[in-house]
Amino acid sequence: MADNNSSAKNVSDYFGCNVFSDKVMRERLPKDVYKSVQRTKKLGTAIDKNIADVVANAMKDWAIERGATHYAHWFQPLTGVSAEKHDAFINPTSNGEVILEFSGKELVKGEADASSFPSGGLRSTFEARGYTAWDPTSSAFVKDNSLYIPTAFCSYTGEVLDKKTPLLRSMEVVSEQALRILRLFGNTTATRVTTTVGPEQEYFLIDKKYFDAREDLVITGRTLFGAKPPKGQELEDHYYGNIKQRVSDYMKDLDEELWKLGIYAKTKHNEVAPSQHELAPIFTTSNIAADHNQLTMEIMKKTAIKHGLYCLLHEKPFAGVNGSGKHNNWSMSSNDGQNLLDPGDTPQNNLQFLTFLCAIIKGVHEYAPLLRLSAASAGNDHRLGANEAPPAVVSVFIGSDLEAVLNALEAGKKYTTVADQEFEIGVDALPNFPKDTTDRNRTSPFAFTGNKFEFRMLGSSDSISCANTILNTIVAEELCEFADALEGKENFEGELKKLLVKTIREHKDVIFNGNGYSDEWINEAVNVRHLPNLVSTVDCLPDYVKPYSIQLFEKFKVYSAAELHSRTEALLENYSKVINIEALTMLEMVKKNIIPACLTYTKDICDTGASKQAIGITPVLEKELAEKLSSLTADIYKETKILEEKVIAAQGKEDGLEAARYYRDEVFSQMQTLRAIVDETETNVSEDRWPLTSYSKLLFSVE
Ligand code: ADP
Ligand code: MG
What we know:
Helices cover about 45% and strands about 15% of the residues. It has 22 helices and 19 strands. Bound molecules: adenosine-5'-diphosphate and magnesium ion. Magnesium ion (MG) binds near residues 200, 278 and 280.
């Protein structure tokens, strides 16, 4: 068995040791088979059966050397994290023994009963068969004694039931359209453009024993109650602060586990809120980044348990301090070595860069609701629009230098640099582009950061697949429009400049470099610039199936109308279910723990008062306290009953959107009302009598 003990070794010795990587394939496959797999990877063509058999066998031998006994087709269903079904390699022989086998057929295609996965009503149960199909562009790996094979998940009737297939489709279409633009600039060498992603992952780390003691954390991943601690994040002493020993040990272990799986974990630091941290990998191709991010989240949780910690990936585990997001750093690069969003140092690149930049700005402006909904979930609603994460209004930050360039271009003026040099914007001028590295606007949902865009709306527990699928498709559409308008034109540069000026004029309203958290901005965005402000999931999900959205996704065959409808249904259903579970958990906690604790505490106070009375002391304090607690407890009881009624009423809503609206407007808002009273009560009850671990303990106990 391979030595997986990494502690004494160099990272380069064990990096990727559990991955069936390109290097392993080259070593273990016959040359022609290896070449054939490479072709499949590049062109996305189907793999020949005989070749699949050879690959499967090599994979199996390699995996068994690493202790694997099973293989699993691994996929990302519509909701939830990831799914896997494990089969042992064993096959019985006629003499009652077993041999270990893994065929090409088993590698390429797997059967999965799709009926238990959300489909948003795409199929009825009798036709619930689905299958998983190998994605050879993402490497197989060994984890927990299984060989994991990254796959896509479809129904037998062809509908897509996962998040990966649309992502792969969107990567194809954006590549095609970007190549059309590159050709217009005279590029004949590039044959493929890939979208690259580096997701920064935020998380909370708390003591496992305190996690276990909170029913709300265990069941819903967030605290449904909890009075604010005397200290929150106001001192701003946690961000980039010194990392505590236990956390540091955890991070070291986590890095090693991720490196073994070939994940480029790179940066780690403390975040703004107490107990909040971040991990960022080095960017890679979108679909691999998506797979790696799913794995990262899983390994984060598993590794925490080993350290007596619990890793919370919920977007808002604690009220009153920042929630967690996932910054999706995104760019495009061509296989002849250019980052298309790098302004570059040569004049040629400038205009090409501006073309891609303008296409993206236009796309964000025209399809803002789709970007907003790509980050929509019940958990993330706590962040977006609150005073911390990017606002729910989607705008683009490009920095003051770039804005000046676009303004100059629009006005047909020369652009003046800081050093007072003047440049005509075009192919033969503007040698050194200003790269905006100084201004790190953290409040923008979609920020240009030097050579990539950072889409900051995603929730920490989300898969990045949906957001990148939508982003890629939007950009493909804009590049397609540009290419349609420019191909075959004689005066390319002149026509291009006209097109860019028009684009800037029509879409500059989406550019905003100021403070995205301020009320003035929201006001200006909505009332002056008419940008949509879709505050909650329920507000934005209906856009998914509006004609403009269906047209976009069908044009590029990323989603069919039926698939869009099913996804919307699945997301709405998930939203309602999450709130329903939270409401039920609240009811249980109030009835089983909180009210009983209030009653016994009140009784003790009354008993103390009675004892005092008996020896002739008037129990003034006891009376006041008991009255206050009685009244708070009565309020809790009253609001609990209302919440209970609303939860029951919600069951009667048949329509997905209507139900989700009801959950938001009635159930969720009633949960807020109930929480406020319970939290106030907490501050009036002795700590050893309060049945829930305090925020102070949860947030400040890891040393
Ligand atoms: P910050 O916190 O300052 O925004 P980090 O270093 O934490 O920056 O994260 C930046 C992320 O951006 C990293 O994951 C990095 O790999 C990624 N990134 C850098 N260049 C690109 C690119 N061309 N395409 C996609 N992601 C990129
Ligand atoms: Mg960062």
